[in-house]
């Protein structure tokens, strides 16, 4: 008996060592497969974006088809409305966005100078604090100044990467059209390639994920668009510089629960404060009203409680997301958490049934 146990432990140890050696060898030959992985990731980006757009538009097409509209006609109409609307918005807003970006880059040295003056004043005010707090705040201010100094370069680099990725904007509409047109065929292929014993559980799992995740994503995108549009109009009425850029930023950050309101408001408040204290007060008031509209009207009506997650869980997921992937982690934290929740519920159900 002891001899048999010893042999089992030797086999397990040998397998573990073999696996570790394979991993080590795989990492050693990384110069061979990293370029291939990079190419595959570049190819996967337009496919992923096209898949997300298809996933968002498919329910609209299904609803149109349910009202008697032939599916090919519904696909063509929704496709033209979606991409035609995007093309029109880009064409109409692009000159204004470029102009405001140019003005922002030109005024960036002045903005950085004002922020540095504020930081110097802030440093003088905290001299009465304990040394430990002074050192921590000084490190924080140094990091903030470094981020501000590199902001212009990062904006230019981002614009350059967007222009360099222009081929994606050409390929994605074609991918979306064929994915929408052949959506049912893709479902049939996925059904047949799935083993029979997993089909029933797989369909239930996808249905639950779609119910939890799909409603949240579609609703949150619509809420963010409404918030961004209201912010643009409000900032333009107040007279805050760069209302389109700041409004777009507020709308995009609104996708992030809880933290998005603060991230989106920060640039607008800073720009308004550099102009005048009256504009600062009106901007803060606008942000407050905007958050009340979003929290009490838009989100409850459009998004509701589609993910059914406790706020504490959402906060923990956001903290994990920002630590692992930065801003992208904040955006993906709630969708990933909702999928994990569905996975755990299905695992518990299957384990109880077996």
From TrEMBL:
<feature type="transmembrane region" description="Helical">
    <location>
        <begin position="221"/>
        <end position="245"/>
    </location>
</feature>
<feature type="transmembrane region" description="Helical">
    <location>
        <begin position="39"/>
        <end position="61"/>
    </location>
</feature>
<comment type="similarity">
    <text>Belongs to the autoinducer-2 exporter (AI-2E) (TC 2.A.86) family.</text>
</comment>
<feature type="transmembrane region" description="Helical">
    <location>
        <begin position="327"/>
        <end position="347"/>
    </location>
</feature>
<keyword id="KW-0472">Membrane</keyword>
<dbReference type="Pfam" id="PF01594">
    <property type="entry name" value="AI-2E_transport"/>
</dbReference>
<feature type="transmembrane region" description="Helical">
    <location>
        <begin position="9"/>
        <end position="27"/>
    </location>
</feature>
<keyword id="KW-1133">Transmembrane helix</keyword>
<feature type="transmembrane region" description="Helical">
    <location>
        <begin position="73"/>
        <end position="98"/>
    </location>
</feature>
<feature type="transmembrane region" description="Helical">
    <location>
        <begin position="159"/>
        <end position="180"/>
    </location>
</feature>
<dbReference type="InterPro" id="IPR002549">
    <property type="entry name" value="AI-2E-like"/>
</dbReference>
<protein>
    <submittedName>
        <fullName>AI-2E family transporter</fullName>
    </submittedName>
</protein>
<keyword id="KW-0812">Transmembrane</keyword>
């Amino acid at each position: 008996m002891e001899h048999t146990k010893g042999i089992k432990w030797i086999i397990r140890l040998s397998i573990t060592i073999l696996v570790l050696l394979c991993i080590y060898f795989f990492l050693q030959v990384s110069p061979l497969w990293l370029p291939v992985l990079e190419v595959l990731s570049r190819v996967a980006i337009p496919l992923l974006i096209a898949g997300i757009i298809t996933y968002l538009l498919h329910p609209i097409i299904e609803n149109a088809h349910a009202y008697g509209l032939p599916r090919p006609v519904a696909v063509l109409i929704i496709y033209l409305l979606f991409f035609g609307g995007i093309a029109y918005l880009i064409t109409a807003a692009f000159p204004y966005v470029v102009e405001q970006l140019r003005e922002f880059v030109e005024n960036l040295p002045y903005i950085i100078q004002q922020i540095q003056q504020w930081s110097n004043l802030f440093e003088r005010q905290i001299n009465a604090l304990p040394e430990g707090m002074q050192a921590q705040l000084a490190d924080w201010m140094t990091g903030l100044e470094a981020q501000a100094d590199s902001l212009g370069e990062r904006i230019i680099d981002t614009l350059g990467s967007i222009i360099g990725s222009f081929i994606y904007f050409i390929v994605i509409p074609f991918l979306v059209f064929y994915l929408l047109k052949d959506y049912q065929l893709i479902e049939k292929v996925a059904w047949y390639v799935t083993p029979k014993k997993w089909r029933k559980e797989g369909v239930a799992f996808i249905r639950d994920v779609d119910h939890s995740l799909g409603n949240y994503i579609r609703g949150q995108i619509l809420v963010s668009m409404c918030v961004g549009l209201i912010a643009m109009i409000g900032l333009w009425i107040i007279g805050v510089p760069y209302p389109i850029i700041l409004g777009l930023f507020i709308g995009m950050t609104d996708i992030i629960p809880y933290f998005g309101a603060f991230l989106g408001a920060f640039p607008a408040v800073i720009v308004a404060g550099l102009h005048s204290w009256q504009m600062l007060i009106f901007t803060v008031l606008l942000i407050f009203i905007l958050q009340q509209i979003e929290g009490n009207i838009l989100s409850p009506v459009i998004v509701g409680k589609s993910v059914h997650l406790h706020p504490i869980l959402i906060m923990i997921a956001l903290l994990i997301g920002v630590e692992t992937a930065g801003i992208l982690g904040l955006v993906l934290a709630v969708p990933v958490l909702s999928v994990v929740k569905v996975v755990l519920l299905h695992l518990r159900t299957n384990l109880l049934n077996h």
